[in-house]
Every structure is written in structure tokens, then in C-alpha cells.
Amino acid sequence: MHNITVALDAMGGDFGPSVTVPAAVQALSLFPELKVIVVGDKPSIEQHILTLGYGDNPRLSVVHSDRIISNTEKPSFALRHSRDTSMRIALDLVESDQADACISCGNTGALMALSRFRLKLLPGIDRPALVAALPSASGQKTWMLDLGANASADAESLFQFAVMGSALAEQHLATKPRVAILNIGAEEIKGNDLVKRCAEMMSQTPSINYIGYIEGNEILHDVADVVVCDGFVGNTVLKASEGTAQLFLNKLKARLGASTFKGWIARILFSDLINEVKTLNPDQYNGASLLGLRGIVIKSHGSADVSALVHAIGEAVHEVKRQVPNKISDRLEAVLLERQY
Amino acid sequence: MHNITVALDAMGGDFGPSVTVPAAVQALSLFPELKVIVVGDKPSIEQHILTLGYGDNPRLSVVHSDRIISNTEKPSFALRHSRDTSMRIALDLVESDQADACISCGNTGALMALSRFRLKLLPGIDRPALVAALPSASGQKTWMLDLGANASADAESLFQFAVMGSALAEQHLATKPRVAILNIGAEEIKGNDLVKRCAEMMSQTPSINYIGYIEGNEILHDVADVVVCDGFVGNTVLKASEGTAQLFLNKLKARLGASTFKGWIARILFSDLINEVKTLNPDQYNGASLLGLRGIVIKSHGSADVSALVHAIGEAVHEVKRQVPNKISDRLEAVLLERQY
Question: Is there a contact between A280 and B251 if contact means CB atoms under 8 Å apart?
């Protein structure tokens, strides 16, 4: 069994070391091959390790950083002033091969800019993309990208997102992923130039299992394994789904939480319904991957709790094992060859 | 009390006269000032009127059409071959002032193209927009546009959508509508050029109560009264929300429908929950308005049942009473004057 080392930016997110350190410790117990380098304010991190009663362990090390990138910093500013920050040092550990992947709950824009600057793009990739696994009606996952790494895209980028998403989904599925383009109508004639041009490229690429357009209401209904769209659309669509799910959850919780006889019966009979329904929230899987880089970078929600962050670390472990960046490179090369003929 | 006459395309949608005729009759009993001209295959419509036991009534008249526009027809084809179709005749009744509004459950693309061709755009409007009222957490409505009348937009169009949406929402609200632009982040720096340029125009227009950017998860949470975005984003976001809501409803229905003791108790205690939760589905209000035209056109869902279509007819009645196209014109003129100074 090969060791897998991840660099964890301990300072990002809403809770800092009080969540990141327990998550690191929990991940170590879950993944026997894992080593974690926790990057951040050393005294604070060591205090949290002590509090957990977790003694010296060669699998858990701490690298000190003096500064953090705040959530309100612009990516361009963060890029120029990243030295000595926990996020930058965690990425540098990947760049220098001391770690196999980086995980951060910090400023998304800064993480994307810094990742691109430190790790560089894979050959043939013009822009990185943020991808996440969404739940679906049937219990299957659906990968959607781009979720906001870019505020706009051209057809070539959209096509590259499809190739990357397909290569990633392949590492999770037994079958060839069904790839669809998100559009405003399933008919050939509908949509803007961007999706039409991308559709043309997809249909000329036999190695991608392109199934055509899908509409927004089909995303969570297991119609496709990979859904491709530009970052503006992906981000707004995902957040709108999360907002809708939250509305329903709140309503259900209010019903089950009522201090009435009905509420009491409801809690006895249906306390599991909330959990069942929660699994339908697009927000449930924490850990979005930044694809297209020469290294593995996982973005966790800023508001992630311990178990959510452990899930994001697990995604990093999975991608290291499967060597996702290499798989993307290989797939891209094959596609480019196809397109030359 | 002034009479209000609406022309109802009886042939569009999934069910034709079996839904449109009962909806017309129901609307007549709800709105005493209403007259309905039902346009479509006369023998079939008259048969349905007879079946309902609804005798001769000067408030309900039938105009015969030989043909219908199918749901699969391209808008450009429909435009060239619209003569003698129910949709075209219903729109012509508005154009010739024989009706105050047109309602159709038919082909959306064809309805948009034909409406623009027959009724023309209001002065100062470059593109029409499809707007609908969405439910929100607090029970208030939120108007969102464009929902797909255009597959793309420029900043000037987006700005016009904001003016039109604000003028429409004003006719429903007691306060000045809060207008927001949908974006991928609330910070000033985020988003694409389109939303940034539109935001600049909005902030220079005092007569619009512009409150800034909102993100997708806030749409249904009563943060803004009017949400502006391009038609591609609006359509995918709305449908994704509907898809998420449907997923939850299905889960809940399965639980309440189970033929077990738990299911039996659940039905007794929570049969009203389904209805309560249904009110959160963005799909609940039928009747999207096509704004920016010199006439009132309401698009109903193709799958609308009788009560949903009655809701769409009610929206038409409301817009006629409030003279929405005039209100939009006035508001636009005021805004253009503001921008000259």
C-alpha cells in the first residue's frame, strides 16, 4: 500500500483549526494509508491536537504559516500577497511533491487563482473547472461542471470540461459516463451559440459518450452522469437547487419540530425522513474538485463541519489513488488525436 | 366596470379543448367582467361547451381556426406558416383590438416569435422577456426574468428586463419592488461582464430600487422582489429548482402513500403537508407573461390542468386591469429621461 499525503489548509473556512484538526484526525483513522500535513498557525493547531488527546504521530505533521487569506480578499490581491499564507504553503507542498493533494475550506477565488499559478494547467487545458457530485433521484451521483471557476466560457473550454468530467466520472462508475450539455430545451434548434458549437464538437468525438442536451429539471433525475455548462450557469443552477432544497427541509423540520401532539407523533414515526430527504440536497457531498491542474486540489465548503471536511479529504484520497490528473491528460490526448482525423 | 376580453388559444397544450374550454367557463364565473373568445376547431369546442351544459352566453364566443401549431415546429417555420392557426388568430384578435389579451398553452418559441411579429415591441424595448412569479419562503412572490424568451442577452437588454420586471411587480406590491441581478457571488468583483455592466446602469437609475447582486440560493428566500438574468440562466435555474422540488415531493408522496401502518398514520396526520409543500414548488403559479410587447400575452404550461389555466387567465385579467404594457412604457420613458441627465 502506497502512502498518500495530503496538505490541509487548516486556517480557511468559518471555523479554522477547531474543525480542520478534528477532521484530519478522523480522516487518519478512516484511511490507513493517509498522512496529513496540517498547514496553519502552529500553536493553535498543536493546542487542538492536544485537546483531542492525539499524541505524537508520524502520520500527522504541522507546517507553520504566519498569515491567512481572508474570505473577502480579491483573487488578484491574494495572488500578489500570498507568501506565508496557509493556502499558498499547502499548494506549494503539492507543487514540490511533498504532498499529493491540497484541501482548503478557504476563499474559492483565491484558491482557484493560486492553484493555477502554483500548479499550472495540464497541457491542452485552457481553463480549470470546478466540479462536484450531486445526488439524484435514483441514488446515483451526477457530476456537474463548471460550478464557477470561470464566469464565462467558450465552446472549446466547454468541450474540455466535458472531457475532464468524463475522465473523473469514469473513476467512480463501472460504465462509460453519459455526458450531456445543459440547455434551455432538448430540441436541436434551441440554445445559444456556445452550447450549439460545443454539441457539434461532442458529436464528432466518439470516445465521449455524448447523449445530447438536457434541461435544468433533469439534472437531479439521473438522466446523465456528467452535466456540462459554463461557470455562471453552473454556479447559479447549483445554488438555486440548494436554495430550493433548503426551503423544503425547513418546512419539514418545522413540521416535525412542532411542540404539538402531531409534532410528537411525527418525530416518533418520521425522524428518519429528514435524513432521507437530506440525501437529496445537492449540497450533501462536500468537496468540489478543481480539475485541469497538474495536481489535485479539493475545495471544501467554508461552512463544512468535521464530517463534511472528512468527506472532502476522502475525495482527495480517491483522486490520488486514481491519479485523476493523469487520467484527464490521457483522455484529452486521445480526444485530440481523434479530432485530428 | 369595463369589460375585459381575452382570446384563448384553445388548441395548444397537451389536452386542447378538454382543458381549455372548462377553464374558460370557470374563469367566466370567477371574473364577472370577463369575456372569452375561444379560438380553435369550432365543432370540437362547441361539443365541449355542450358537454359542460353551458348554453349560449354572450360572454363566451368561438372563433374557428383550421390549423394548429404543433409543439415540435421551429419558431421560424411557425412564423412562415401561421395563417389559419389558432395561436395566430388569437394574437390577431389582440392586434385588431377585439381582445385585450391572448393566452396560449402552445409552442413557447412560436408564441414568442408570433407575438413579436403581430403585436410589435414597445418603443425602447429591444427584446421581449418571459417573466413568472415564483413562491418564496415567506409567502411573498418573486418575479424572475428572462426565463427563456432569449437564449442570450446584452447589458442593455438585461437593464430593460429590470425596468419591465419592476413595472410589473409594482402592480402587485404596495412597496417599490427590490430589484436584484442574479450573479455568482454577492461581491462587487464577481460575475461576468454582462452583469457588471448592467449593475453599473442600474446603480445610475434612481427610479429603480436596485439592491445589488443575489446568488442562486437566495431566489426563493424573499431577498428580492424582481430577479434579473439572461434567458439561458433564468430558464435553467427555474427548471433546476422545479426539478429539485419535484424530487422532494416524490419522496414525500412515496412516504405518505405507503400501504403500511406508518403510511396510514402519515396520511391522517400529514395529508395537508403535501399541499403546503406544493406551494413552495416554483412551478406552482401558472401563467408566464411575455413582457415588452404592445399587447398582453400569457404563456401557460402545456401540461396545465383546468385550475392552472384559470390561474393564467386570471393573470391576463390582472394585467389588462393594470394596463401593464402602458405602465412599462411609462416607466421606460422615465428611466430613459433619467439616463439623459
Answer: yes
Q: Which domains does chain B have, with CATH numbers?
A: 1-125+292-323 (3.40.718.10), 127-284 (3.40.718.10)
Helix (H, G, I), strand (E, B) or coil at B83: coil
Interface test with A, best of B144, B239, B244 (most A CBs within 10 A): B244
Tens of pLDDT, residues B186-205: 555 578 889 999 999 999 99
CB distance A152 to A231 below 8 Å: yes
Three-state DSSP state, B59: coil
Report the amino acid identity of residue A206. Answer: P
| A266, amino acid identity | A
* Grid cell in block for residue B8: 384563448
Q: Are A166 and A331 in contact (CB under 8 A)?
A: yes
Q: Is the pLDDT of residue B138 over 90?
A: no
With an 8 Å Cβ cutoff, are A247 and B221 in contact? yes
Spatial distance between the Cα atoms of B310 and A103, rounded to a whole number of angstroms: 53
Taking CB atoms and an 8 Å limit, are B277 and A184 in contact across chains?
A: no
Residues 6+ apart with CB under 8 A from B95: B118, B119, B295
Q: Which residues pair with A39 in a beta bridge?
A: A9, A63
DSSP A48-72: HHHHTT----TTEEEEE-SB---TT
DSSP assignment string, A168-237: HHHTT-SSPPPEEEE-S-SSTT-S-HHHHHHHHHHHT-TTS-EEEEE-GGGTTTTS-SEEE--HHHHHHH
Q: What is the pLDDT of residue A72?
A: 86
Give residue B1's pLDDT band: very low, low, confident or very high (50, 70, 90): low
What phi and psi, each to the nearest 5 degrees, are found at residue A233?
-65, -45
Cβ pair B244:A218 closer than 8 A:
no
3-class DSSP state of A86: helix
| CB of A241 less than 8 A from some CB of B | yes
Cβ(B166)–Cβ(B142) under 8 Å?
A: no
For residues A90-95, give the mean pLDDT: 98
Look at residues B296, B275, B239 and name the one whose alpha carbon lies nearest to residue B8.
Answer: B296
- Angle among Cα A137, A141, A147 to the nearest 5 degrees reads 110
Q: Which helix (H) or strand (E) holds B142?
A: strand B142-145
Closest CA to B330 of B210, B201, B222, B171: B171
In the block, which residue shows the cell 468530467? A165
How far separated are the first and last CA of chain B, in Å rounded? 41
Cα separation, B173 vs B167, in Å, equals 10
- For A260-287, how does the pLDDT look when each residue is reduced to its tens digit (9 = 90+)? 877 777 777 777 777 777 777 777 788 8
